[in-house]
Specification:
- This protein is mostly helical.
- It has one domain.
- It has four helices and two strands, in the order ααααββ.
- Strands 1-2 form a two-stranded antiparallel sheet.
- Helix 1 runs antiparallel to helix 3 and helix 1 packs parallel to helix 4.
- The longest helix is centred in the middle third of the chain and has 40 residues.
- It is elongated.
């Protein structure tokens, strides 16, 4: 019975990995309850060190993937904020050391993708 629970948990962790790699945040939210339920069931039965090692490795892998995804989102948000700041105007310093904003104007050239 416990082997089935461990296999189910590994399957859920693999599905979670796929969702992380796909950037499917809606699907990711649903895995928490499944993982918690299976982990509780796993605690009550006999332990197999090989299965526990595989579960631990899968959990660590997903944690690293989530951390990388969070880092990527933060970098993208920072880049978008920098682009928005440049769009609003260029920030420079005067000869006296005061910060000044030089307004930018829209380009007359239309860029098409």
């Amino acid at each position: 019975m416990n082997r089935t629970i461990a296999a189910q948990l590994l399957s859920v962790l693999d599905q979670e990995r796929q969702a992380i790699l796909a950037g499917d945040t809606e699907t990711l939210a649903g895995f928490d309850a499944q993982k918690a339920t299976l982990a509780e069931k796993l605690k009550t039965g006999p332990k197999n060190s090989g299965e526990l090692a595989a579960i631990s490795a899968a959990l660590n892998r997903n944690a690293r993937l989530l951390s990388a995804a969070i880092t990527g989102v933060k970098a993208a948000r920072s880049r978008l904020a920098a682009l928005a700041a440049v769009r609003d105007g260029l920030s420079t310093y005067s000869a006296t050391g005061n910060r000044e904003i030089v307004a930018t104007r829209k380009s007359a050239i239309e860029h098409k993708a």
